[in-house]
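anyone seen this seq b4? input:
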Amino acid sequence: MKKIIYLLLGIVSIIGIVSCDLEDNIDPKNPSEVSVDALLTTAEIAFVDQYNNMSVNRNISRLLAQYWMQRTYPNESRYNFLDRGIPDTFWAEFYRDVLMDLEAAKKIIDEKGFTGANALKAKNQIAIMEILEVYTFTILTETFGNIPYSEAFLGRENTTPKYDDASTVYADLLVRLNKAISDLDSNNGTFGAADLLFDGDVDSWMKLANSLKLRMGMRMADVPSFNSKTVVEEAVAGGVYSADLEGAFFGYIGSVPYQNTIYEGFVVDARKDYIPSETLIDIMNAVNDPRLPYLFTEKDGAYVGKPYGITASSSYGAHSHFSETFFDPKLEVILADYSEMEFFLAEAVERGYAVGGTAESHYNNAITANILYYANLTGADASAAVVAATDYLAQPEVAYTTATGTWQQKIGTQKWIAMYNRGIEGWSEWRRLDFPILAIPTGKTYADIPVRYPYPFDENEMNEDNYNAAAAAIGGDEVSTRLWWDIE
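predicted toks r here
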């Protein structure tokens, strides 16, 4: 990902060149016009940085999904959102640093009034930014519920936007995504190297868009008005990730400030705040999960996690740690992949959707793909990983036909394992499928486990009337308030 450096150096060079002959009252260090390419780049970086962040100040989804446990300061593992203002930062990072940059870029394109080949390129650029906006808004509305949407980004025209109904927002996002898919044309240009995710490749954006559409369709599967069956079947027909090691992966360059979040927290900041949770380790231990050595180290010949949500601190050396692979500053971020799509398709078959294959075949593909991904990531032998996956799926506790419970329990549990280190997706799918059964923190009940973020605390002061209306509309601004798509 050296292109990040080249792009930033290029921006600096351009500013340096024009600064030799500037009009009065022009600040050479703060250009009045930013390029569309630069805005797309910064939006992508901001999106991935927040989506993948592990800081307790910004994103605690790995804790909410109970993949990790805090070693010394357990407040966030015990669902304290207030002290650090976590919802405020989560909200601001996506609205301010992602969506506002994308909106600004689209406005620039609109004002330019391009014609001919440039207009065709601009159409592709807008479609790509729309896909990223849809992705961002889905995270916001799946996390908070009703959110500012139709009145967002009006600036001084409206500094207190209303909150739109979440299901209405979601439906509109699907309309926008469908339009973006139809507008993409591989015969025309896009962003090139400024696009850090796909180098401007239209076909890659098309596949991500359809995979996102499949995810959206399945998230709404329990909401009859959303017509999930049609959405899912259209997405599959359009082309989703369909082969091992295929997906949308964002790679870091490995130097400040573009480094994997675990490396930043443990190496750069020299902190050891997180260890694997007992919830995850025990579930994986119970079925001899072959991914354990890919993900974690052993403690005295065994994999040992820390009980989730307890108040006592513990020694870093008393438990298993993350494997060395996760301390690589260049470790990639998974935004969507083949394994995730196959889990969705297994569920789609169970729901009677026409997506081909059987629930068992998709389930087996999903698990195998995830094992192979981590084998590849850690440099393990691929053929041995295939054997390990086959043996794993042969266990009665794992095999689709013999594993305990409903399809929700079978798929939900295995998907939760596969979404490890993808906290937002793991937490969302746990909320939707209700499996596996998570641990109950000391002094709390199962109902206390959050199923949404509370609204930003400063909204109660800065946008009080609209905040109150939004809270009332969803049934109360509580972490226990189930959102419209999370049906028991």
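Confidence is low (pLDDT under 50) at residues 1-24. The two ends are 43 Å apart (CA to CA). kinda curious what u guys think
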